[in-house]
Write a structure and sequence with these properties.
Elements (H helix, E strand, L loop, with lengths): L32 H14 L2 H5 L2 E11 L4 E6 H14 L2 E7 L3 H5 L5 E14 L4 E14 L5 E8 L4
Parallel strand pairs: 1-6
Antiparallel strand pairs: 1-2, 3-4, 4-5, 5-6
């Protein structure tokens, strides 16, 4: 009787990424304002409506200047989610970058408190037929309930396109 021993070694691919949750470092638990804004940016860049909705409070309000009617206007959470979903569907590539945001704002983590601050951004939108590069300012009010996450309660668009 002949006994053949076959080594039970797996194939090693030195170019394969390490096992684990590939999104573990991408999404945060929104315990600081910086983490909230990182999730907001990542949701835009990945065109992820579900993750974007998690950045907004249930009583969210978007404030903007209606150029056509020459007046201030606003909409709530449901309209914003529909508008943002439409933006994501109509562009093949979306790229949002926050600029000039202080470390003090990024590190803010106080529970049961709100913070109002200005953030400048650049937003690039690309489709097969068009591309837009937008630069602007947003005034955010964020709130973190005890034992919860930061969420945006008010976003005032102060952009000039």
């Amino acid at each position: 009787m002949v006994l053949v021993t076959i080594p039970l070694t797996g194939c090693l691919n030195p170019f394969a990424p390490a096992l684990g949750d590939p999104s573990a470092s991408l999404w945060t638990d929104q315990q600081t304002v910086g983490e909230l804004l990182d999730n907001f940016r990542n949701a835009y860049n990945l065109q992820d409506s579900l993750r974007y909705s998690n950045c907004l409070a249930n009583d969210f309000t978007f404030l903007y200047y209606d150029v056509e009617n020459e007046r201030e206007d606003q909409w709530g959470l449901n309209t914003d989610l529909k508008a943002t979903g439409g933006l994501f569907r109509n562009f093949e590539e979306v790229h949002l970058t926050w600029t000039a945001l202080s470390q003090i704002i990024r590190d803010f983590a106080a529970e049961d408190s709100s913070l109002e601050f200005d953030a400048s951004f650049s937003l690039s939108l690309y489709s097969a037929n068009s591309s837009y590069d937008l630069y602007g300012f947003a005034r955010f009010t964020v709130f973190k309930e005890p034992a919860s996450q930061f969420r945006i309660t008010i976003w005032k668009d102060n952009s000039y396109f």
